[in-house]
Amino acid sequence: MYRSGLIGVAAFVVLAGALYSVTAPAATAKKPGAAVEQTLAPSREMPRDMRQVQLTFAPVVRRIAPAVVNVYSRSVVQAPVNPFLNDPFFQRFFGLNPQQQKRVQQSLGSGVIVRGDGLILTNNHVIQGGQDIVVSLNDKREFKAKVQLADPRTDLAVLKIDTKGERLPAIEFGNSDALQVGDVVLAIGDPFGVGQTVTMGIVSAQARANADASNYQFFIQTDAAINPGNSGGALVTTDGKLAGINTAILSPSGGNIGIGFAIPANLARRVVEGASAGGVHFPWAGADGQPVTSEIANAMKLGRPQGVLLKTVYPNGPAAQAGLHTGDVIVSVDGADVDDMQSLNYRVATHKAGDTVKAKVVSDGHWREVTLKLTLPPESPRRNSTTIGGRNPLAGARVENLSPAVALDLQMNLFAKGVVVRSVAGNGFAARYGFQPGDIVRSVNGRNAGDVGQLKNLLDGARGHWDLVIERAGRRLSLTVDG
Question: Do 56 and 139 belong to one domain?
Answer without folding.
Answer: yes
